[in-house]
C-alpha cells in the first residue's frame, strides 16, 4: 500500500462523520505525509498502521464516550440497509418470475396440459387393468363353482369318472380365482396406495422447489 491508496481508503472509512471533521482529518494526514517526504513514506505507513485503525482512532476522539453508541447505531443502520436490499431483491425476483410466467404462458400451460393428460392416461390404464383383472377373477370364481356343480350332477347321473374330472377342473378354476382374490387384495392394499403417493409426490416436487427458493 502506498500513500495515495492509504489516504483514499481512509477518506472512504470517514465518509460517515461530519464533513468538517473529515476534511480536517484528511488535511492533517496529507500534511503529515508531506512533512515526512517521499523517502519516509513507507516508514509513516508502518507507523500509522492500517487505514481502519486510523479511522477508528479518529472516530473515538470525535465521539468520545458516545463511540460505542455510534458503532451500534451504524451496525443497525447497515443491517437495515441489508434487509431493505434483500426485500427489494425478493420483490424484483418475484416480479421477474411473474413476467416470465406470463411470457412463457403458452409453453408451460402446454406442458401442464401434457402432464395432466399423461396422468389421466396412466390412471385410466390402471383402472382398465384393474377392472379386467377383477372380471377375470370373478369369472374364475363363478366358472369354478358352475363347473364343480356340473361335475357333481354328472357323477350323480351315472358318470362318476367324468363327474370327478369335471369337479377337479372346477375346483382348479375356483382355486385360481381364490389366488386372484388374494393377489387383488395385496395389490389394492400395497401397490396402488404406494403408486398414488409416488405420483402425488412427483406432482408436488416442482412446486416445493419453487417455494423453497423464494
Automatic annotation (TrEMBL):
Keywords: Membrane, Transmembrane, Transmembrane helix. It comes from Roseburia zhanii. This is DUF1700 domain-containing protein. The chain crosses the membrane at residues 95-120, 126-150, 162-188.
Amino acid at each position: 500500500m502506498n500513500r495515495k491508496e492509504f489516504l483514499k481508503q481512509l477518506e472512504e472509512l470517514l465518509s460517515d462523520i461530519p464533513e468538517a471533521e473529515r476534511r480536517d482529518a484528511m488535511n492533517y494526514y496529507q500534511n503529515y505525509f508531506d512533512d515526512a517526504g517521499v523517502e519516509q513514506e513507507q516508514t509513516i505507513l508502518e507507523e500509522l498502521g492500517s487505514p481502519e485503525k486510523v479511522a477508528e482512532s479518529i472516530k473515538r476522539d470525535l465521539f468520545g464516550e458516545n463511540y460505542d453508541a455510534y458503532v451500534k447505531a451504524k451496525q443497525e443502520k447497515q443491517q437495515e440497509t441489508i434487509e431493505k436490499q434483500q426485500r427489494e431483491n425478493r420483490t424484483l425476483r418475484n416480479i421477474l418470475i411473474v413476467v416470465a410466467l406470463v411470457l412463457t404462458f403458452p409453453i408451460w400451460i402446454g406442458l401442464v396440459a401434457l402432464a395432466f393428460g399423461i396422468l389421466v392416461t396412466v390412471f385410466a390404464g390402471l383402472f382398465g387393468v384393474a377392472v379386467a383383472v377383477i372380471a377375470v377373477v370373478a369369472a374364475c370364481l363363478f366358472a369354478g363353482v358352475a363347473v364343480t356343480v356340473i361335475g357333481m350332477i354328472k357323477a350323480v347321473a351315472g358318470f362318476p369318472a367324468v363327474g370327478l374330472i369335471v369337479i377337479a377342473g372346477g375346483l382348479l378354476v375356483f382355486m385360481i380365482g381364490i389366488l386372484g382374490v388374494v393377489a387383488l387384495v395385496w395389490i389394492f392394499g400395497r401397490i396402488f396406495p404406494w403408486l398414488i403417493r409416488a405420483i402425488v409426490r412427483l406432482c408436488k416436487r416442482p412446486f416445493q422447489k419453487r417455494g423453497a427458493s423464494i
